[in-house]
Amino acid sequence: MSVVDKLKSLHSAEEFFELLQVDYQPEVLQVLRLHILRRMGQYLVSAEFEGKSEDEIFVAAQSMLAQAYEDFIKSNPMAERVFKVLKEHDPSRPPEPGPKPAFVPLTSLKTGS
């Protein structure tokens, strides 16, 4: 089975770290697992594996996972913003053009009684 096929078959963050032999702190992974795996996925998508040996692919994937882990050790999810919902609520992002959704304060709502 190829390295890429093995990666596709994994189900937990711990399995990725074990397969790729990357050290991690369980308490860090417990909190940041989705962010780390999402970032690794971003790195994998931008990688070119065509013509590479299985050993080269393994080392590249190992390096990408280690880098993704380091990204969140040195920073935090709010600064890295790997998920769409965090990107959309980035205060440094310019506002989207067009009308904003109307804000309806709860105090203006009437009950049916």
Describe what this molecule looks like in 3D.
This protein is mainly alpha-helical. The chain has one domain. The protein is built from 6 helices and no strands. Helix 3 crosses helix 4 (54-74). This is Nitrogenase-stabilizing/protective protein NifW.
Provide a quick synopsis of the model:
The protein is about 60% helix and about 0% strand. The chain is mainly alpha-helical.
Main attributes of the structure:
113 residues, mainly alpha, elongated, 6 helices
Strand content: under 5%
What multimeric state do the chains show?
Answer: single chain
Helix tally equals 6
Radius of gyration over C-alpha positions, nearest whole angstrom: 20 Å
Unreliable stretches (pLDDT < 50, length at least 5) are: none
Largest sheet: none
Overall shape: it is: elongated
Can you lay out the helices and strands and say which pair or pack?
Elements: H1 3-9, H2 13-19, H3 26-46, H4 54-74, H5 77-80, H6 84-88
Helix pairs in contact: 3-4
InterPro entries: NifW
Region (Disordered): 89-113
Family: Belongs to the NifW family.
